[in-house]
Amino acid sequence: MTPAQPHHTAELRAAAKHQLGRRSFLTATSAAAALAFSVGLPGTAHAAEADARRIGADPFTLGVASGDPGPSSVVLWTRLAPSPYEPGSGLPRSRYTVRWELAHDARFTRIVRRGSATAHPEFDHSVHVDVTGLDADRVYHYRFRAGNWISPVGRTRTAPARRARISELKLAAVSCQAYHDGYFTAYRHLADEDLDVVLHLGDYLYEYAVTATGGARAYTDRRLPAHYNRETVTLEDYRLRYGLYKSDPDLMAAHAAHPFVVTWDDHETENNYAGEIPENDVPPEEFLLRRAAAYRAYWENQPLRTPQRPTGPDMRLYRRLQFGRLAQFDVLDTRQYRSDQAYGDKAHVPGPESEDPSRTMLGAAQERWLTDGWQASGATWNVVPQQVNFSQRRLDLNVPAKVGMDAWDGYPAARERFLDGAEAAGVENLLVLTGDVHVAYAYDIKRDWDTPGARVVGTEIVATSVSSGKDGAERPATWETYTRANPHLKFYDGRRGYVTVTLDERQARADFRTLDVVTRPGGSLSTAASFVTAAGEPGLRQV
């Protein structure tokens, strides 16, 4: 689909075009400020302060969220939006004071921290509070106040102390939530799980049009505004789309129940973009403006700290979290720095174009950061939340077989560097968590994919989609081909849902949770399969 003509200003287009050949210097130039949009940054636009007591309708329609838990800190998030489906969300371009409270109990009789933050119009009245000085490995409850309005109560949890020995860590991995493909029922069930943290592996948002009846949701009790029935391109487009997605009650319930660690894939910006290269045939400077809009709206609507705040079309999203001595999480960004997909991004047999050793998935800086982090890791499990299929996935039974060019199969030299770095660092328990493909997979990771019985060096767990792909099927049309062509593929299920992973010193256990339906509300949840891999002895075994 060709995107609608964007309404970026001529000045922004000129700034982006001027800087295109000097991208390595972009964040240090005046063009960075221009690409941060004419709305500017707080302190430069001098928005007047308004009295929050005059907000006439509930401003907490998008709920609350927390994220990126550390041993002594956690990020709290909300956004003031009395009318989330309208441009500006029903508020004037004024700043508001928002108070927050953090307590040991849900009734707030034992308050631990409280303070205030400013909801700036430049950030679409979003609030990001980095609460510090907390106890490690402890559950807290939080809420916000704006004038006389009180938000829903959220529950969060800090990480264990860096050197702590903990008996168990339970996480969930989710991905791919196309609003127009179905209900977010998976999140309603996820909210009821006993979890330490949720990892969102990308495609939190889709840029595609949503009809007045919500696409496959087929609403009969409401009509969505016409501005949703177009592809997102501008900052206002992305902000409005987040208003739609984050107003979903099931998604709000999951955010209120657990801290999230988020990373993006492609659809938060545009399908299958690669670095500065768009999917569609538009001028590169035009795409940088779109990317800047998407990145800014992403930060505004996620529980992320200030260091993740974008500067124009650049945003440092890869980061590291640690949960005692048990687990280190190296959260990757496989979109912003990658080489363009080989062979026109069509399924293709491996060849000179895809096997070029200069091709990168992560970029040189992120590769070094990852391997340096492994070298310093003392964790039992080194977990890598990332976006696209890591293990080899042959798409047919031919020799050689075609593989996907958007996944790591299209960047085999980068995958080898990844595995070289893990081996050189002595990583014994490598666990890659993946989204993107709208199905659940469980893989044994190998260095030699072609030799039966070759050594297993890690595990990949692929979380199916929350709703993308509609209801799906237990055995999709490709099930027999993929399972025969890929002996290291131990599980394949095409239904919607999520996966939980329980880590302890002895093993990692993955439980694949699936739904019978998402195109109508109320889908029931079941466990499709469970697998374990032993610490120090990689290799999946069904239980």
From TrEMBL:
Residues 1-47 form the signal peptide. InterPro entries: Metallo-depent_PP-like (IPR029052), PhoD-like_MPP (IPR018946), PhoD-like_sf (IPR038607), PhoD_N (IPR032093), Phospholipid_Metab_Enz (IPR052900), TAT_signal (IPR006311). Residues 171-512 form the PhoD-like phosphatase metallophosphatase domain. Transmembrane segments: none annotated. The keyword Signal applies. Gene3D superfamilies: PhoD-like phosphatase, Purple acid phosphatase-like, N-terminal. Keywords: Signal. It comes from the Bacteria. Residues 62-158 form the Phospholipase D N-terminal domain. It holds the Pfam family PhoD. This is Alkaline phosphatase D family protein. It comes from Streptomyces zhihengii.
